[in-house]
Amino acid sequence: MSENTYSKKTMRVLLFLQQGELTEHRIYSFLASRVKDEHNSNVLRRIADEELRHAKIWQKLTGKEVRINTFKLWFYSFMAIILGYTFVLKKMEKGEDKATKAYRSLIAEVPQAKQISEDEDRHEQQLLAMLDEERLQYIGSMVLGLSDALVELSGTLAGLTFALQNTRLIALSGLITGISATLSMASSEYLSAKNSGEKNAAKSSMYTGIAYLFTVAFMVLPYLLLDSYMAALLIMLVVVIVIIMLFTYYTAVAKDLPFGKRFLEMALISLGVAAISFVIGILVKRFLGIDI
Q1: Confidence band, pLDDT 50/70/90 cuts, at residue 222
Q2: Which residue has the higher pLDDT, 292 or 221?
Q3: Rounded to the nearest 5°, which phi and psi values hold at 52?
Q4: Is the model's pLDDT at 2 over the cut of 50?
Q5: Helices 38-62 and 8-34 meet at what angle, rounded to 10?
Q6: Of 108-112, 159-163, 232-236, 256-260, which gets the smallest average pLDDT?
Q7: Band of the pLDDT at 235, cuts 50, 70, 90?
Q8: Do the beta carbons of residue 29 and residue 47 sit within 8 Å?
Q9: Could you tell me if 154 and 219 are in contact, meaning their C-beta atoms sit under 8 angstroms apart?
Q10: pLDDT band at 221, cuts 50/70/90?
Q11: Is 214 helix (H, G, I), strand (E, B) or coil?
């Protein structure tokens, strides 16, 4: 069937797919040029070549040239720099619902669409499985630092909030505790990794420490900016939920893990410890008769 016999609806779908493939070719090519690891760079170039091949197939059917989606190119390129290319690529794959529906709608008029869709899914999944991004190797270390900081510091800040009732004193105590705990956690991770025979014990320690330190900074910030200790406590708890949600979502996408159960489990543990510590702060203040 030539392009002249396609319906207007089918032609729009074909042009949509053609633009999508061409845009993704540019995204993969951009990422390949930025990745230092030769193996990963080659994998990304192979994916880029696959996308270009598919775009040319659609172009033969439409007989037209299309422009790339510039916004999509810049958006995903920026996100890859911030969050890593594996996360972005898997996010792109999970967002292929429109393309899948488009393929299905074409089968009646363009029989080869089914085979092209199956080939694309199979090839891209095989190639994506070959990616080996460094930061994903240390997800366990990052989770260790993040979860420990959330549980330990949320409890500490909640307890100090009622015990001290002064945002500056709470922030000072939280920073001292947080920085000390960061150094302690990073050191413990280094020794644990070293004793386990891991070659990159220093990197494991670094990822754990960085995750812990950033979490501390975000959690203490409300106490530095606000005068109301209760408002600071509430915002700190919101920050805890947001951090858990964002990091759980990141790991769920990048590592193909379930989001809901992991998020709920981590949130309940952190908030539960914070609630218990808040009660302990009230009891300690009352029984010791300390008034600051």
Answers
A1: very high
A2: 221
A3: -65, -40
A4: no
A5: 160
A6: 108-112
A7: very high
A8: no
A9: yes
A10: very high
A11: helix
Instruction: Report the pLDDT averaged over residues 161-183.
Output: 85
Report, at the CATH architecture level, how domain 3-133 is classified: Up-down Bundle (1.20)
Q: What is the largest CA-CA distance in the chain?
A: 88
Look over the chain and give the mean of its residue pLDDT values, rounded to a whole number: 78
d(C-alpha 184, C-alpha 204), whole Å: 14
Give yes or no for a contact between 161 and 278, defined as CB atoms under 8 angstroms apart.
yes
Which residue, among 172, 173, 174, has the nearest Cα to 149 in the 3D structure?
174
**Residue ranges in the chain assigned as alpha helix (H):** 8-34, 38-62, 70-83, 85-94, 97-106, 112-128, 134-137, 139-164, 167-195, 201-225, 229-254, 260-288
Paired tokens of 144? 């260790």
Surface-to-core class of residue 218, CB atoms within 10 Å of its CB (0-12 exposed, 13-18 middle, 19+ buried): middle
Angle between helices 139-164 and 167-195 (to 10 degrees): 150
Instruction: Check whether 173 has a pLDDT greater than 70.
Output: yes
Candidates 199, 79, 82; CA nearest to 138 is 199
pLDDT digits (tens, 9 = 90+) for 30-63: 888 887 778 778 888 888 888 898 888 888 888 8
- Provide the H-helix boundaries in 63-166: 70-83, 85-94, 97-106, 112-128, 134-137, 139-164
Residue 84's CB is within 10 A of a number of other CB atoms, namely 18
Q: Which two tokens stand for residue 42?
A: 């080659």
**Alpha-carbon distance 166 to 61, whole Å?**
70
* Angle 207-213-214 from CA coordinates, rounded to 5°: 90
Structural domain spans, the chain:
3-133, 138-288
* Nearest CA among 25, 23, 51 for reference residue 120: 51
Q: Is 171 or 95 the better-scoring residue by pLDDT?
A: 171
